[in-house]
Design a protein that fits this description.
By secondary structure, the protein is α+β, with helices and mostly antiparallel strands. It has helices spanning 3-7, 30-42, 54-58, 83-87, 93-99; strands at 15-19, 46-50, 63-67, 76-81.
Length: 124
């Protein structure tokens, strides 16, 4: 079921699991998404969101941080509380991110090839 369809129903008591719903979204589309998630919760549902976007994390009622690292280094609960409390946890990467101390590291990808277009057809 899509998020839009869920909002159009009178579902209550449902669990919605959203895995990184901001991937591919324009930054301007994130606030309406967080409003939709909040509306689901206000209707008596549970919205479990796996996300790295600080705006989405700040809009949560409760944050669970797993770590201390990724992959094999992760998997333990290292924080459970509000986004405001997490922002005070300078020993956690997400806490530093929410406090504005750190930025999300962006590692450029290594170029592995090229797209070549030869002899495109004219549209006129």
């Amino acid at each position: 079921m899509s998020l839009t369809a869920a909002l159009g129903t009178s579902l209550t008591g449902a669990l919605f699991v959203l895995d990184e719903p901001t991937v591919g979204l324009h930054p301007g589309d994130v606030p309406p998404l967080t409003e939709a998630i909040a509306e689901l919760a206000e209707r008596g549902n549970i919205a479990l969101v796996i996300e790295h976007d600080p705006l989405v994390i700040r809009s949560a009622h409760r944050v669970l941080e797993l770590g201390p690292g990724a992959g094999k280094q992760g998997g333990r609960l290292v924080f459970d509380g509000t986004p405001e409390a997490l922002a005070k946890k300078q020993d956690l990467p997400t806490g530093r991110l929410l406090a504005g101390v750190d930025e999300v590291p962006r590692t450029p990808r290594t170029r592995t090839g090229a797209l070549v277009i030869r002899g495109p057809a004219s549209t006129t």
